[in-house]
Amino acid sequence: MQIQTTSDDHRIAKLAAFAIALHMVEALLPSPLPGVKPGIANIVTLYVLLRYNFATAAWVSILRVFASSLLLGQFLSPTFALSLSGAILSLGVLGLAVHLPKRYFGAVSLSILAAFAHIGGQLLVVRLWLIPHASVAYLIPVFALAALVFGLINGLITAQLINKHQRHDQ
Amino acid sequence: MFASFTQIKNSITHLRIGDWLVIAISSVLVVYLFQHLWSHEHAAKVQIRVGDKVHATYDLNLARHVQVTGALGEAVIHIAHGKARFAKSPCHNQYCVHQGWLNHSGQAAICLPNQISLELIGEKKPYDTLNY
Amino acid sequence: MRKWLTRLLLIALLALGLFTLRSFQQAPLHHSQSYVFGTLVDISIVGETDERAAVLSNHILRDFQQLHQQLHAWKTDKQGKPSELGKLNSAFAQGNAPINLSLQLANMLEDAQALSSQSQGLFNPAIGHLISHWGFHKDEFAAIEIDEAKIASLVKDKPSMADIVIKNHTAYSNNPQVKLDLGGYAKGYALDMAAHYLRQQQVNNALINIGGNIIAIGKNGDKPWRVGIQHPRNPSAIATLDLDDGWAIGTSGDYQRYFMRNSKRYCHIIDPRNGYPVQHTQAVTVLIPPHNKAGVLSDVASKPIFIAAPADKPQAAAKLGITHFMVIDAESNVVITQAMAKKLNWSDANFEKNHHVRVIHTD
Hints:
Chain A is an all-alpha fold. Chain A has helices spanning about 5-30, 40-50, 55-70, 80-95, 105-130, 140-170. Chain A has a single domain (about 5-170), classed as Arp2/3 complex 21 kDa subunit ARPC3 (Orthogonal Bundle), CATH 1.10.1760.
């Protein structure tokens, strides 16, 4: 039996594999503060969004979340829930933000907006499900600062990658 | 495949106007969040005043018993687990001791006869002065 | 287009920088605390150098100290001489020969007479003998044995502010049982005095708190001065409110000076009609709009409302023209006027939710 695959599928698989690798590397790295991570796998999502289209980016992102959690043995665990909620919310925001005029808004804008959406989604899960009674309010500023900093850095890296690629194409 | 530091610097110069706007608005948001969500925390310190002078300020999380000499004599103040109270006072009516534990920013216990006051101070005062 | 946008962005960033700077930068606030008037005096001054603020605060504190000595109801000075008020009280007790008094004291007494009659005698600074009998004319008071006959006779003497005759810098009393105690007036008078002095000295922003009675001048930086209202039983605030320029606030509470006897609370606020400490009320807070005697009114006006029976409280307030007040009764129920409720921000969930806040209108 053989499943027909398109070149699109191959592309998605390749990019998702790359995102999964980044995700795994990050999971192994120690974090200065629990929950604060650079989210370098998001670079792949952003890159795909800007190079290809939203649908591909969404596939890559969601595949990455599922596959990584399976590989790390976290499937359906709280970590998975946090990862998924963050990914879905940031995809939602990216889906909207991608319509911003390209002339004024580049990869950095998208990256920062997505990073805020990401922590927003995660905090929502924490508040509603994981520790409903605990006060997470005082953690919000720390996460927001992390989102700004890492969103900016990831955005700059993505912008650089896209630039390089465009030069390469010409 | 990763961009080097100089390349990152290079891409900063290529930031578009909207990118700067997003960075600016996000920064405001982060500053705002820090200001508003870190201000209603429990008190961090207790300030002890004797007469018109600040006698000492202590961290509320380090448990200790402090002896302070006021106008009438020695009072003992207990500090522990983010709270502070008058434990002993030489005053007659013992209102200060009956006040019990203080644990929120802005709360104060005053011993008028012995002229000693405790005030809990946090990131931000919930009010400038107390009407009593 | 691009240039224009860059400029716009620069302006935006500049504004952001200013915003951030401003939010972190605190207007210089000079804060001093002192024990004068047998209570805690707390003065905050904003927008002056530390040196000038210290000079101004010290001047106010000296004035307070002087006023305190002049009006002390039971203490003598270092030479063993009674205060000006003490001398007046001895003269009243000895008969109705006129005695000289300072212009300042004469003005205070005339003002107190007017307020006393306005409150139909519920504010009565002439009942010094009753207060003394209950043991509150001591720094350290204790539970007393209640002498019903003595209290009844002190009430029957009917000491009243109307018994005092003030003429040409002299005063005498038609009733030898009059003993003045300006405990419910002096702090308010001192507030007005201090506010007047600071305004004269071109100080635009300050907050003065004398034993819980507060008057505001200007603002604290870009925000109004914020005042917390003490919980009558716990060491916390039940609510906060913004005290705008010229406004004053005062509270009479049964927790300020009291003793317990057979697990009953006897506070220093005595009903002149029956001679007993009021037991139906825990606290009355009044808020006074800008007025040259706002401080005095913040001190005086809470007393008649405190003393009046629960049903009569709105009337007692109306007689003194008080529109902003809040009553906490013995069961911790809150009664508050609509005008006052608009200004309050509750910080005590029990008072806000579990207690019935009855909004009353005064027109």
